[in-house]
Amino acid sequence: MGTTVKDRRFNQRYGVHIPILFRVSERGAVSRWASGTTGDISSNGVRFRCRKPLEVGAHIEMLIAWPAKQEGIRPMQLHATGFIVRRNGNEAAVRMNSCRFQIDQAAAAPMGATA
What we know:
By secondary structure, this protein is mainly beta. It is built from one helix and six strands. It is globular.
């Protein structure tokens, strides 16, 4: 009789493939924004693909394009921070320690408008 490994994830994960911008904190260096695509998301974590492997344990800031819009017209994004807890090649899993929704100012601005 084989043993089973209990899945340590307690929250339901949803397979959504949406754009993500992120930057990893690096000591003594200016962090740069990079892009990727989410693979799944839950209330306390996100898994995404990016162009190069990220360091486990690193602090990360993320802006995730949200599929719903405020009042049906204003683009939203999830602004979250957390730590990279796993990686598999160019995939990273992040445990979020803070998150909030905000209006995506760049997408909300009318064409030709300047901020």
